[in-house]
Amino acid sequence: MTTPPVRSNPLRDPRDRRLPRIAGPSGMVLFGVTGDLSRKKIMPAIYDLANRGLLPPGFSLTGFARRDWADQDFAQIVHDSVKAHARTEFREEVWRQLAEGFRFVPGDFDDDQAFERLRRTIEELDEVRGTGGNHAFYLAIPPGFFADVVGQLQEHGLTEGRGDSWRRVVVEKPFGHDLASAQRLNAVLAEVFPSGSIFRIDHYLGKETVQNILALRFANAMFEPIWNSNYVDHVQITMAEDIGIGGRAGYYDGIGAARDVIQNHLLQLLALVAMEEPTSFDAASLRIEKQKVLASVVLPRRLDLTTARGQYAAGWAGGEEVIGFLEEEGIKRTSTTETYAAVRLDVDTRRWAGVPFYLRTGKRLGRRVTEVAVVFKRAPHLPFAASSTEELTQNALVIRVQPDEGVTMRFGSKVPGTQMEIRDVNMDFVYGGAFTESSPEAYERLILDVLLGDPPLFPRHEEVELSWRILDPILDHWARQDEQRKGKPEQYPSGGWGPESADAMLARDGRVWRRP
Ligand code: BG6
After folding, report:
1. CB of 241 closer than 6 A to ligand 1?
2. Which helix (H) or strand (E) holds 371?
3. Cα–Cα distance between 116 and 69 in angstroms, integer?
């Protein structure tokens, strides 16, 4: 048989995508410089990008905060964060060049003079660092302040570049706490920035292994034919964390696991696993397909039987005794905020009819692991004695998002010996073994994409809305249970695998959660 020639599509982007993508002249203004996100993720990622030669030589980072700091104090903060959290090695010459572009503007969000100083700082940077009028405003601050900041940026003429130069805004979740608040938040941003200039970060989309879901599905011939309800029994998407809420009580209480993680990261994973092939990987085509999936998600009727929630109780984590969620500092003793959530969703399309998607996430679980497991139906017929296949379960393809990134295929194999005994075995692809280059951090990829104006990895507002439409009824159901005292989050021991109600939820469907 001859192989058909590989045809190229003339409509596709002719650029060679293997060439390094280097940002053009630009700068970034960071609001929220004292927060965890800035110190642990954003600042180190900027250094890592500089170290990899992906930032322009005159790149500038301006911090804005209510602190009485000079530029050098800000530089020291960035220095400490880079030393503690950067992925790549510290190189003095890279650091020195980068640090020359650091500025700090002290001020409150309602301080007109501070925003006037910010405007002058940006103009100065355009002149001395050659940032070309191109600036991204990164709002690493609680969404309650978005309106103040973007209002000030607009008032001080900072939201529109001159000529060909660009201005962009970068926002972090939570994008609201329900559909209505998400719509209000979007209105605040959309009033000032055109939709193409708003970059919403869902850092899971910046992870290599998450992007690999698309490569696995659409670059290969052998997975797609079985990627449907004829062969797939169900899908399990797990994001388990071993940490507790740490110092984030203020953020977490009243938010909880479903809003914190399911609304964004896990529904985005579901969309990538379930979507149809996009016509190309540009932002518009990709987002259309993700949107179609999110719009097709339906909730089962009995939410009391198809959702589960819990709170971690005292227990063990990493060999240490730890306290329960309700004992954490800053958490109300009567809090009903869930630290574990599991839901069953159905995707109402021909491809997925009858295939449940089970999503779960929790803090203080046995191990930190994120994975997508596509679990296949049993073979329609087994020509073996029943005793030969007692230890054979269902075939599965597991995309290991983190840690230990890779893909595992589980299938049955004969146990060596004189008898026919068949047992599950795993075949592993491990990133670290197949590639010499280590994966960049999600924030490196996403910050670079902001500077390049490359939007495919950023969810658009419609996706955010659709995600809230899925989650709101579940959150309402839990709130009603609380109000009517008909239920509350079940306590589960730290270091375990979540509440018993989550196991019961799957058992009712004749299934079990994987123990990664
Ligand atoms: C964040 C959540 O979005 O993701 C945190 O707000 C969570 O609660 C974090 O700990 C986990 O991210 P990662 O990349 O470590 O899986």
Report:
1. yes
2. strand 369-376
3. 17
177 is catalytic: no
Helix (H, G, I), strand (E, B) or coil at 503: helix
Exactly one of 265, 381, 461, 477 is catalytic; name it: 265
Residue 215 near residue 278 (C-beta atoms within 8 A):
no
Which ligand 1 atom sits nearest the alpha carbon of residue 251? 6
Residues 103, 63 contacting (CB under 8 angstroms): yes
| Distance separating alpha carbons of residues 463 and 272, to the nearest angstrom | 12
Question: pTM for the complete prediction?
Answer: 0.94
- For 278-283, the CB contacts below 8 A with 24+ separation are 280/9, 280/11, 280/12, 280/13, 281/214, 281/456, 282/13, 282/456, 283/454, 283/455, 283/456, 283/458, 283/460
Half-sphere exposure of 404 (CA within 13 A, CB side): 10
Comparing C-alpha atoms, which of 364, 368, 365 is closest to residue 327?
364
Residues 6+ apart with CB under 8 A from 130: 25, 56, 58
Report how far apart, in Å, the C-alpha atoms of 319 and of each of 315, 368, 392, 495, 505 are: 10, 14, 33, 9, 30
Mean pLDDT, 10 residues at a time, over the chain (516 residues)? 52 59 96 94 98 96 96 98 97 97 97 97 97 97 93 96 94 93 95 96 96 96 97 98 92 94 98 97 95 98 97 91 96 96 98 98 97 97 93 96 94 95 96 87 97 95 97 97 92 96 98 93
Q: Is 495 left (phi over 0), alpha (psi -120 to 50) or beta?
A: left
Q: Whose alpha carbon is nearest atom 6 of ligand 1?
A: 260
DSSP single-letter state for residue 249:
H
Distance of CA 195 from the midpoint of ligand 1 (Å): 26
List own/partner pairs for 155-164 with CB under 8 A and 24 or more apart: 155/112, 155/115, 156/112, 156/115, 156/116, 156/118, 156/119, 157/119, 158/115, 158/118, 158/119, 158/122, 159/192, 159/193, 161/133, 161/134, 161/135, 162/133, 163/133
- Ligand 1 site, residue 208, Cβ cutoff 6 A: no
Cα–Cα distance for residue pair 15/72, rounded to 1 Å? 40
Ligand 1 centroid to residue 320 C-alpha, Å: 22
- Residue 308 carries which side chain, given as an amino acid letter? A
